[in-house]
Structures are given as C-alpha cells and as structure tokens.
Specification:
The complex is a heterodimer of chains A (300) and B (427). With 300 residues, chain A is an alpha/beta fold. Chain A folds into 2 domains: 193 residues, Rossmann fold (3-Layer(aba) Sandwich); 81 residues, no CATH class. Chain A is built from 9 helices and 10 strands. In chain A, helix 2 crosses helix 6 and helix 6 runs antiparallel to helix 7. Chain B is globular, with a radius of gyration of 24 Å. Chain B is α+β, with helices and mostly antiparallel strands. Classes of the chains: A alpha/beta (300), B alpha+beta (427). Bound molecules: guanosine-5'-diphosphate. Guanosine-5'-diphosphate binds next to helix 1 of chain B.
Amino acid sequence: MVKVLSHLDWLESEAIHIMREVAGQCSNPVLLFSGGKDSLCLLRIAEKAFRPGRFPFPLMHVDTGHNYPEVIEFRDRKVAELGERLIVASVEESMSKGTVVLNSPNEPRNKYQSITLLEAIEENIFDCCIGGARRDEEKARAKERIMSFRDEFGQWDPKNQRPELWDLYNARVHKGENIRAFPISNWTEMDVWQYIARENLELPNIYFAHQRDIIKRNGSIVPVTEFTPARSDEKIENLTVRFRTVGDITCTAPVLSSADTVEKIILETASTIISERGETRLDDQMSEAAMEQRKKEGYF
Amino acid sequence: MANKTNDTVLRFMTCGSVDDGKSTLIGRMLFDTKTILTDTLNQIEKTSKKRGMTAVDLSLITDGLQAEREQGITIDVAYRYFSTGTRKYIIADAPGHEQYTRNMVTAASTAECAIILIDARKGILTQTKRHTYLSTLVGIKHILVAINKMDLIDFDEEQYKHIQDDYLTFFEAIKDQKTQVDFVPMSALEGDMIVERGNRLSWYNGPTLLEYLENLDVSDKNSMQELRLPVQFVCRPQESSNKALHDFRGFMGRIESGTLKVNDKIKVLPSGHHSEIKDMRIGDDFIQEGITDQSVTITLKDEIDISRGDMIVHEGDNIASTKDLTAMVCWLSETPLTVNRTYLMMHTARSSKAKITQIKHKIDVNTLREEFADKLNVNDIAEISFKLAQPLVIDTYEKNRVTGAFILVDESSLHTVAAGMVKSIDS
Ligand SMILES: Nc1nc2c(ncn2[C@@H]2O[C@H](COP(=O)(O)OP(=O)(O)O)[C@@H](O)[C@H]2O)c(=O)[nH]1
C-alpha cells in the first residue's frame, strides 16, 4: 500500500521545503519573529529544516514598544535557547528619528510597523522576510502568494502578482526589492493549534486563560493597561480571558475563555464561531478593505 | 502517517464560466461544513443588504480583493480551506474569464482534482471545453463535472443525462485515458447534493459532492515509483567546538517521488557519483524510511561533492540529465515571448539558461486544433523545444508532476513568464 503523509506532516513538510527554498535562493533572508504562536511554529519548522546546523538567517522582531512584558521575556528566552541571533527593529526608534510620526500619543502603532520594517530591510539589505501569515486569516490574504513580491517601497500589488505554479518559487529580485515568504500559508488556525500540541511547543502564558482587568467597549474586550486605560465612565471587570493573537497591546484583544491548556484551546477552537482576526484584531474591523490597504503599503 | 484518505490533504480546484455558480458553491461548502464564522457571516449579511438582496449571498464569502468587489468579478486565484475531520481540503478558486487562462493553469498546477461547473440551463459551453482541456493538460487525474442550477430545470433527470452525454462525447475528442470523469447534479444556491442530499434529486444514486471528495483516492497522485530527491540545501555546520558536527554534511530536500531507506544505494546526478544513505532525519528525529512528499536531511557514507540543485536517485536508475527537451508551455506574461531571447528555466532546485529552438505549434484551446505560431502572447499554449546551457534531471510531466515541470523567468524583469510541462526528452 502507498503510504501518505497525514495532514500535519504534509503541512510541515511543505513549510520546510519553502524555508529551504528561501535559504537556497536568497542571499540575505530574515525570519520575522514576534513571540506569537504562528512565528513559534515557524521556529520549529526552521529547526526541522536546518538542524543540526544553525538557521541560515537571523530572527527579527518589529517591536512597537507596546508589548506585554511576558511576551518580550518569552521571546528573549526562546532566542537564547535556540542559540540564534535576534535583531530588534524598534518603532520607537523610528519615532525618535522622525520617520514615524504619530497622530496622537496613544494612537495604535501597528500600522507604523510597516515603516520600521522597511527601514530595517533597507539597513540590513534583506532580500527576503519569512513571515507567519496564513491565507485563512483574512480575505486579502487568500490571494497572497507563498513567495510574494514587494517593490522598492515594500508595496504589494495584488493585481500584478507573479504567477506561482507547482512548488516552483521564484524568489529573484532586483536590488531594493524583496520577497515575503509565508511557509505556513496553507495552515488554518486549527492546524496551528494541532501542531503546537503535537510538537509540544511552549507559548507565552497570555495565550492561556488567566485573570485580567478588562473593559467592554463597542462589543470588544479591551484589556486595561498603561497604554489602554479605562475611560472615566467605563466599568473595569476582572475576568478570565486568553489571547488568540499577541501583538501590539493597543490592538490585540483577549477573549473570554477558561481554556488553560492547548487541548482545551483546541476544543474551543473547534467550536468557535468567530474568526481570529475579526474577534481580536481591533484594527481590522475598521473597514472591510483595511488589511488589503495595509498590505499594499508594505505591512507583513 | 495516514491511510489512503483519513487525515490526508486533498487539493482541488473549482472552475466554471462566469455566473455558473462557482462562488456560491464554495460558499455553500464552507457554510455547510461549518467553516464560515459568524463575523464573516455578519459582514456578508450587511453587504447583501447594502446591495439590495433579500437572502444572504453565499458567493460573497469568496470575494477577495477590492478591485473584485468594485468590478464584481474574480480576477486571481484565491485559496480556501475547510476540514471535515476526515480530510483537510485546500481549494484553489480559479477565475473563469478567457483572459485568465494563466490563473487556471496556476490553480491546476497544485490540484489533484478539478470540479468543473456547468449551468444546467446552458449545457456545455466553450469555456467548459477549455477548462477540461487545461485540467488534463496540467495533469489532473480526477474531474468532477458538477451540473448546477438543477432547481431552474425542475431537477429534470433527462436534461441532466443529456448534458452528461454531450460532455462525454466531447471528452472522447481529448483522447485522454488517464483522467477519470464523474458527474453530480446539484443546486449550489439551495444546497442540494453538496453536503446534504436534499430530497429533490432522488433519481440520482451517486455520492454528494462532499462524499465524492471524502472518498477520492489520490495516493497515486505521482504515478512514478522511482526516487527523486532534489537537493535544496547543503548543511555544513563546521562547528569546531563540537566534534560530532565538525565534519557533518547533511543534504536537505523533499522526496518528490518514491521512497528512500537508510542503507539504500544512491547515485547523484548530474555528476554520477555513488554512495549509500548513512542516516536520515527530520530535525532531531532520526527515521529509517522517507516517503513521497517528506522533507528530509540525509547523510552519506562517502564524502562526495553535492550541491544545491543536484538530484539524488537510486543507484540502478537509468535516468540521465539532458540539455534538450520539448514541452507544453503556457505563456503567462503580458510581454510576449521573444523567440531568440534566452530565458531562465527553473526546475526543482536547479536552474539553467534556456533557448527556444522551435515553436512546434500553438494550440487553440477552444477547438484543440494545432496552429502555426512564431510568437506567443499571454494565455497562449504551445509545444516548444528548448536547448539548455546546464543539464537538468528531467522526467516527462506525464510520469512526474514535479520533475516534469518548470517555469521560465525573464532575466531582466525577473518575472515568472511561462509554465512548462515536459513532453519528451530529446537527447
Ligand atoms: N437558481 C440557482 N441559482 C444559482 C445557483 N448557483 C448559483 N446561482 C446564482 O447564480 C448567480 C451567479 O453565481 P456565482 O456563484 O456568483 O457565480 P460565479 O460567477 O460562477 O462565481 C448568482 O446570482 C447565484 O445566486 C443554483 O444552484 N440555482
């Protein structure tokens, strides 16, 4: 009988193949690592792709300065464990250089990550950024290539993408242009959780149910933090929540949940009725075309 | 590891002419398998209302980019996912317009099965023929002809049979023996025979569309049993601090066909050097056997020179590398082919400069007639002979969809301009 890979093995093998193509074709790639669950899957895949050698690329975090301290601490520990190199590209540095100008002091900084990322790409002369985006996350992503071409300004042109056939990836670029490579394009949120369970991956603890002060605002749950304080008329509640994505504090919302293990999260994910971005990325809800717009401007 | 269908991945594409109901069908599959989430549903409810519709338009689920929303058409391949517990499905949603033949070919390149939609009121159209031809050209072995909008012809069995006969008559003309064709009547709008059977097609005894997919055996998707392992990356840690790693040389790649075991005798092409597999691993886990589709790292018993782009095969295999080949090529770029230019051919993990020695003929995808051609425009399909600067280890596409496929890159724009499927090796 012909043996066939199970769906997780297949997805993993595809992702390894993509990473090795990046390593084989690009002269100076980098892996974007946020400490979030998708990028943790990328790290495990990189281990499977390149061990016992070192990763043929450094890791890079585009840091908005608005992070949960647990996540940053976790990020640094993980990097040390792996013995790999981490570059931190800081939005606050771009602010002090004057290349990022906030509209108001407490404005969410997520969208400015694009600017800092592009600066870091230019400074380090990266020709490829490996990211953990998935096509099931959001409408505009469903059409994204696995190796997605960006022009000198980091722009994505959805109407003029390079055709991508079979598993033949064309990562060639001129100087100044670059490729965004997405090895887990074909994974769903469920696949990610199943992989985390199978590989026994450690995650920042805010992914698991914990007590937190929150307020309910326009149907979303907003964590109470120094960057997202409660307004005077709002009621602070202490509830059991967990995060489904981790990122900039000002635009990542937790969900009510008592799931405190990966297994319980999988059960919850299986019966969940709200998609990941819709529920927890406050910035995508603004308009139907928000993500597409940001991607055109050079977002991940 | 999994058995034939349980817990495997199935990749399929959907194609049809505009308004045949493709978007509605995909929306229906996602909806009925409970893959659509409430916030998405809320959004499409809002949009449906805004557009003055009374019921929720499921086709909006697959509606991706802004330009499409404005023009109301699908312009690029989009990928969708759903999972039934039995299988994980990856749908490549290919647009139906003529000018987007290239998108169809793109979607088909990774698909194992094609669902071709037909509007039951209209029967077989030129588009249907084109979709069928392109599916077979790109090596899809399973076609499901979905005869949609049965509700608009009162679920009439006679008319269904008539379309089925028409299709089979035309399919004969393609002279394709490798493709299995099946039919299903359905109403994407109302949900009959997709996930649920409904009760209005009781004369039909075959599987629903989803049952068809759940039971489709594609474990033979690569008919080739011979080992093909293109080397993507060579790992030489050269850690002087670690004795075990100091001389480590690992060869990394994905087994594209066949299987490979520890101690197997192998040969490296194009150099022809021989050795045996010392060990095999995925990351830190050692394995005894690697199977098709598996990405592995191997070490060899002898120190031989191997670099990215080399191909590992079994020792007794008599495949050789070649510099001359003929292929079916689909031109993907708005910039036409220039016959005397040199292009870069990317094939597995190796590439070579390639010259066109002859355009044998072009194929009219509507009539399947061969025509003379001295240039190619976007969406043209032609049989072309090439001469290569570097030897490549190639199989025919019919035998192997990985080692028989290539893309052409324009070395000045660096764009992917063509897709090729090898028909014959000429030297
Ligand atoms: N009556 C009926 N209408 C359908 C059916 N499937 C799709 N439609 C309608 O046909 C039109 C085109 O469908 P759509 O899915 O957008 O077609 P596409 O262009 O192939 O994606 C829409 O108005 C659908 O509501 C069906 O099974 N029965």
